Amino acid sequence: MNVVPVEFVRVMPEDMRKFVRELYRRVGKSADRARLMAQLLVGTDIRGVFSHGTRQSARYLRLLRDGELNPNPESSIAHLTPTTATIDGDGGLGHFASWRAAHLAVEKASAAGMSAVVTRNHFHFGAASKYSRVISGAGMAGFVVSSHVRRLSSDQGIMAANGASPMSFAVPSGREHPLVLDMSTALAPYGSGNFETIFQRMPATFFKSLGLGAVCHALGGLLAGIQTFDEQGASWPAVNQGSFILAVDIAAFAPQEAFQRQMDDFISDVRGLQPFPGEDRALLPGALEWEREQSWASEGIPVGPDHQRDLAAIAAELGVETPFQGCAGRSGGT
């Protein structure tokens, strides 16, 4: 899903933001909250992470419209120490609590060298790198995981414990792009007809995937308190997720300029290596997203047919005109 579509129309970022703002206004969100959702979701699209950008709005908006989520949550600090915090999401989308948590983690790490903040009592928070990049943008290293309530049963395979949880690391550089890893811990082949064959060929991959998903659940779920909310019964039916956000101040461990220069050298050296088979460049995570962010800001976001259909369907339900009419179509673009 996060491959540039072969067929698409280009939509300028501001046009998409305006469209998304109006969608969220139609389900009762305040102007400020609608603006933040548009900023975060379009900002994800413009990096090419289509799976977790504006396309998620179809699901979010129906839950909000149907009363499954709090449209205007007031996130609050439930627990606070000099280096940690717990933020309650008040039954809303996870973006609001997690955005606040990332900024609070930066603030606390600036004073103490490191900080960790958990969020709870909310729904999906979108792409994890939205929050890790808040931290790397402040010159720090960020680590973010999330998880959701899991109800496991004996008729499921062990990979159900993985939960397809997200994790993201973001490390700042100087003149080069930041190192940003943003991924699901799940493996697509699980559940497919050839799962056993693939497992026999590379079992270590599945063991690693299971372990990473379990760690995400322990930190971004159980530590955040999602199980407690599930047992007590959440006030809003769709509430099921939490997150763990860690900020590490580079300057607390090494001279900032020297570290960033070394990161630049490392990223540059990698470009001189032989790429993966079938690829034409050797790049570290975050490079493609960085390039797209620079070029699509002026060229427009390539929105594929399925993406258009998902947004057009919810737009029709809410009586909002889409920005796709009149946009130039392309085939075979990059």
Can you tell me about this structure?
43% of the residues lie in helices and 19% in strands. It is of the alpha+beta class and 334 residues long. The chain has a seven-stranded mixed sheet with strand order 2-3-4-8-5-6-7. A three-stranded antiparallel sheet has the order 9-1-10. It has helices spanning 13-26, 31-45, 57-65, 94-112, 129-137, 195-201, 203-222, 226-232, 256-271, 287-299, 305-318, and strands spanning 7-11, 76-80, 84-92, 114-122, 140-148, 166-171, 179-184, 241-249, 301-303, 329-331. The radius of gyration is 20 Å and the shape is globular. α1 (13-26) crosses α2, α4 packs parallel to α5 (129-137) and α6 (195-201) crosses α7. β3, α4 (94-112) and β4 form a beta-alpha-beta unit. The chain contains eleven helices and ten strands.
Order of helix and strand elements from N to C terminus: EHHHEEHEHEEEHHHEHHEHE
Strand arrangement, major sheet: 2-3-4-8-5-6-7
* Residues in β-strands, percent: 15-25%
- Termini gap: 14 Å
The total of beta strands comes to: 10
Which regions have little confidence, pLDDT < 50, spanning 5+ residues?
Answer: none
Number of helices: 11
What is the helix content? 40-55%
Shape: globular
**Rg from Cα:** 20 Å
